[in-house]
Amino acid sequence: MIQKFIYSSIALFILASCLNTQKKSNQQSTKKETLETQKEVVTDTTSILDYAKETTNEETAKKIQQFLLEKNKKDIESNSLTSDDRKFSFYEIDLNDDGKYEYFIHLEGRYFCGSGGCSFYLLNNDFSINTYFSVTNPPVFRSASITNGWHDLILYGDYTHDAGVKNYIYLKFDKSKGTYPSNPSIIKKIDMAPSGHDFVMWHDEFSKAKPFTF
């Protein structure tokens, strides 16, 4: 009788241990799933972080992709331009107040960028080239000021020793050429900073642009 009682106790102890282990396993599994779900939510939130709405139009992105593929066709075919360098972002923006967008394109990657800056395109509403900018650095401001029917563009000039902005570059539309100055580095710098009424593009803090490839 005692022996039977002992066997029964052992069996109950083993069963309780198994149930406890299974419970812990289920709790750990549930905790793991909860953490993974939380991680997914954070990841999803990160992937849709505040890109400026002027930079997210997928249809516009496809048209710009086609423009850049055609423009760089020879370099792509010769492998001079690799997939790692085929990156861009853009802004849809009206620069001449005609109610139609122009398309401002920032080319990125080592092929298009150097120590002085990167290449930019400004395309008209029909995707023809308005201005090709060399050695240009973001951010770019659309000034409220207008020259020859087009808003001035403002860039940072020189920096102070503590990374502050020392002066600025104003690009004014040239009516005779029908373009903005293509090389900002040769434009005389002035002290007048952009105002709060000027629209800023490619600013990491205030107006991030959605990245694309072509």
List keywords for this structure.
2 domains; disordered N terminus
What's the gist of this structure?
The chain is α+β, with helices and mostly antiparallel strands. The protein is built from three helices and eleven strands. The chain has two domains: 1-49; 53-213, no CATH class.
How does this model look, in words?
This protein has three helices and eleven strands, in the order αααβββββββββββ. With 214 residues, the protein is of the alpha+beta class. The chain has two domains: 1-49; 53-213, no CATH class. Strands 1, 2, 3, 4, 5 and 11 form a six-stranded antiparallel beta sheet that branches. The protein has a five-stranded antiparallel beta sheet with strand order 9-8-7-6-10, with no helix packed on it. The radius of gyration is 29 Å and the shape is globular.
The total domain count is 2
Radius of gyration: 29 Å
- Averaged pLDDT: 84
Termini separation: 83 Å
Beta percentage is: 25-35%
Query: Any idea what the shape is?
Result: globular
> What's the SSE pattern?
HHHEEEEEEEEEEE
Give a quick account of the main beta sheet: strands, pairing sense, barrel closure.
Answer: 6 strands, antiparallel
Helix content: 25-40%
- Overall number of strands: 11
Structural class estimated from helices and strands = alpha+beta
Number of helices: 3
> Unreliable runs, pLDDT <50, ≥5 residues?
1-46
